Inverse folding.
């Protein structure tokens, strides 16, 4: 049986969640990773995606996060996300807007490095959109 | 000596002014509460950010390949001052105290032979410094249409600053804003954001732990530092917003009280004059009757 540990999800505008949870799945920039209690110290950047939290009671909450960091240390997991929205509050057009912005960024990119970055972001956003539609 | 009618008009006008200042005070008080809540909500993020930065920066201590945002360009010839003020006036000494700090800084830097560039956030700051340093102001960013400051506003400013830094247009960047202490006290503050001043790392049990990084430290740090700039600017803007409302609230409270005093004095004068006039009329009637 998984043990509860301290988890915090913070965006610049507010503290979204700070409580004991059983398990968190974070969309890391180099692959999703799950965090349980007593995870070894670990730090990763976050790519746009869905962050799944299994709360103490067993119910699962999902957040859309974009840009930021996950920091696992002895005291628990902290996710600093530039943008974090509970999926229940996420509206389809908001994501569509972001996809549109990303498309524009790709079109506007002047050199290869920025274009590559913009394209990666776009494909990640599209992935989420598809995932949400399927759900 | 003003006539009774003049006095009456005067009292009416002061009363109208008092009503306005009172309303402005109420509005400022309501806005202050919201601004304070926003500032408080943003605090955890900035704190965590500091912690994470401190943790990761240790890995770079004394290394030559540390990102430029942290180690600086190695010079301090060109200074960029970001002057954050309000968009509106009527808030006591709020705008002028920030502008004063900015002018002092600019003057002392110029005296040391440094080059100064200024970026204004908020129209009032620009108005206050344009006479002396108008030529040094690169741009004024107005947040007039913005109801409540969002992270996106700060990120935009940060992007601008960072692109300038990448082009080597300045070496040191300082952010000037008013720190919110309380409703009656806002302290103009200058905070250096580039090169980043990192908080001292707290030596705790965690210090011994070895972190695993994904991607590696360098990449995380290059990603983290620009975000930290945005966060610092965001925090400063929120502090500023709270300070502005606080300053306005106490300024309007004072104005309301002064208007009240003035009304009292004017009313006293009005009544005295009215009595004097009645007495005068009575004397005229009586002496007229006696003469008959």
């Amino acid at each position: 049986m998984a043990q509860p540990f301290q988890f915090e999800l913070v965006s610049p505008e507010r503290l979204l969640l700070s409580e004991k949870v059983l398990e968190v799945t974070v969309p890391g920039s180099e692959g999703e990773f799950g965090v349980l209690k007593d995870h070894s110290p670990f730090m990763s950047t976050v790519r746009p995606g869905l962050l799944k939290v299994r709360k103490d009671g067993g119910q699962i909450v999902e957040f859309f996060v974009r840009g930021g960091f996950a920091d696992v240390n002895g005291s628990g997991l902290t996710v600093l996300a530039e943008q974090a929205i509970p999926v229940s509050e996420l509206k389809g057009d908001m994501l569509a807007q972001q996809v549109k912005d990303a498309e524009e960024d790709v079109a506007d990119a002047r050199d290869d490095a920025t274009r590559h970055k913009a394209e990666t972001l776009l494909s990640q956003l599209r992935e989420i959109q598809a995932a949400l539609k399927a759900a | 000596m003003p006539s009774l009618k003049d006095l009456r008009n005067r009292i009416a006008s002061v009363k109208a002014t008092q009503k306005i200042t009172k309303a402005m005070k109420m509005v400022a008080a309501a806005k202050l509460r919201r601004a304070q809540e926003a500032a408080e909500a943003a605090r955890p993020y900035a704190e965590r950010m500091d912690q994470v930065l401190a943790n990761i920066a240790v890995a770079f201590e004394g290394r030559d390949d540390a990102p430029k945002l942290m180690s600086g360009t190695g010079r301090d010839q060109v200074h960029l001052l970001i002057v954050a003020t309000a968009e509106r006036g009527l808030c006591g000494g709020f705008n002028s105290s920030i502008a004063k700090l900015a002018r002092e800084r600019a003057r002392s830097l110029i005296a040391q032979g440094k080059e100064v560039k200024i970026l204004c956030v908020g129209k009032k700051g620009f108005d206050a410094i344009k006479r002396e340093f108008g030529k040094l102001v690169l741009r004024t960013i107005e947040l007039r249409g913005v109801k409540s400051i969002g992270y996106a506003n700060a990120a935009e400013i940060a992007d601008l600053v960072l692109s300038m830094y990448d082009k080597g247009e300045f070496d040191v960047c300082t952010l000037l804003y008013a720190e919110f202490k309380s409703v009656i006290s806002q302290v103009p503050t200058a905070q250096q954001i580039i090169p980043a001043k990192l908080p001292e790392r707290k030596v705790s049990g965690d210090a011994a732990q070895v972190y695993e990084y994904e991607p590696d430290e360098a990449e995380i740090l290059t990603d983290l530092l620009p975000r930290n700039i945005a966060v610092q600017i965001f925090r400063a803007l929120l502090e500023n917003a709270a300070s502005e409302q606080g300053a306005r609230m106490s300024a309007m409270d004072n104005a309301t009280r002064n208007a009240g005093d003035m009304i009292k004095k004017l009313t006293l004068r009005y009544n005295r004059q009215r009595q004097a006039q009645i007495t005068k009329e009575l004397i005229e009637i009586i002496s007229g009757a006696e003469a008959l």
